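Re-run with default settings, no changes from the original entry. Doing this only to confirm the output is reproducible before filing.
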Amino acid sequence: MKTDETLTREYLAAVERETSTLPAAARQELIADLGEHIEVALAERPGSVREILREVGDPRAIAATALQELGGATTTRSPGPGRRRSPAWLPLVLLVAGDVLPYLGGIALTWIGLAVRVTAVVILCRARHWTAAQKWTGLTLTVIVPVVAHVAWYFSPVPHHGSAVEPVVRWTVIALVFLLTLAGAGWLWRNRRSA
């Protein structure tokens, strides 16, 4: 069971994430004010931290209000009724599946693999689990470098069809690209944050 201190710290961290577009000074002041408000409320009503945090409000709503007060456009939206955010594991599984499907045979699976990979990129880009820099790093490892490797292999001077070297080199490239995709997905998984 989480302590009052842990729940408060997690709540303030969520507010800090949601207000990441605020200037640093404004964000720090907001977090300090909220922390003080929660501390005073807990002194008056010990043991009711969950109720107090509910009264303070949803971190997204606090961020939207703070952005409006500073005159900025709100970039944070609540998902709305019937719409949930995708879990962090979904785009990662889709990236790996999109890399594997074309090698299972058939042109249909190649196109399905491409569609799965495009879907993964869209979900990853819209996800709140990573910063923009983390998304670019993850996409570079899981999509950009693998695609470049495949194109480089296709246009390489290494003898392709019919040579004895071709299957060994081809499967080596495929294995390396797959390992790179797995490594990128693993890196994204380790660096995710709760949305």
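The longest helix spans residues 165-190. Residues 89-190 form one domain.
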